[in-house]
Amino acid sequence: MIFFDRVSKIYPDTSVAVQNVTLTIEPEEFVSIVGQSGAGKTTLLKMLLAEEKPSEGQVFYESTDIHTLKKQEINDYRRKIGMVFQDFRLLPDKTIFENIAFTMEAAGRSDEEIQSDVPYVLELVDLSAKIWNFPHELSGGEKQRVAIARALVNQPDIIIADEPTGNLDPENTYDVVQILKKINDLGTTVILTTHNQGVIDSLNKRVIAMDKGRIIRDDKEGKYFI
């Protein structure tokens, strides 16, 4: 599904963010990418999202080099990817229903789809009772579950969770990880970046470790390693 073919990213100040990375991620995999700040994780994700272009090499989604896509094609491609961030990025003046519906409206989904799909994804993340609450009425863990529901509602092929538990306590971290595992079990590819050793060790899934822009370890059922 995803293939990085000898990809490097060198910025104008000659700093090397990613160096000669070759990487395949198969459909329905759960992959964690770990590494210290500056290891290249974020740059790798930005190239997958077509927000940054490689200096060398190619990034493929299925059989398409995504960096040859035109602007509208890139927009269509990005709809195949749901993003979950550390800082939630919810709209404070909209209810939980409206936050998720807004994402569906932007993708051109119908009112009927919105009315049926928003309750469904909130049930999936165990937040049906909070559908008419505002973000300020939720805990941090609940906000992150809303963010996951929002990322999932347009039925993406891939969920990218970039440090999704960075602001959460251990109990909420556990809940979020269990939801990501459930999403993966339902057939969605999950790419997780995290510094949380406990999260990685509890997953027993594939772990890719990066350092100074290179992949230094890739374990099929790995533990946290830097």
Which helices and strands, and how do they pair?
Layout: E1 2-10, E2 16-25, E3 30-34, H1 41-48, E4 56-61, E5 64-65, H2 71-78, E6 81-84, H3 96-106, H4 111-124, H5 140-152, E7 158-162, H6 170-185, E8 189-193, H7 197-203, E9 206-211, E10 214-219
Parallel strand pairs: 3-8, 3-9, 6-7, 7-8
Antiparallel strand pairs: 1-2, 1-4, 4-5, 9-10
Overall description:
The chain is α/β, with parallel strands linked by helices and 226 residues long. The protein has seven helices and ten strands. It has helices spanning 41-48, 71-78, 96-106, 111-124, 140-152, 170-185, 197-203, and strands at 2-10, 16-25, 30-34, 56-61, 64-65, 81-84, 158-162, 189-193, 206-211, 214-219. It has a six-stranded mixed β-sheet, sandwiched between helices. It has a four-stranded antiparallel β-sheet with strand order 2-1-4-5, with helices on one face. β1 and β2 (16-25) form a beta hairpin. α4 (111-124) crosses α5 (140-152). The model has no long low-confidence stretch (mean pLDDT 93).
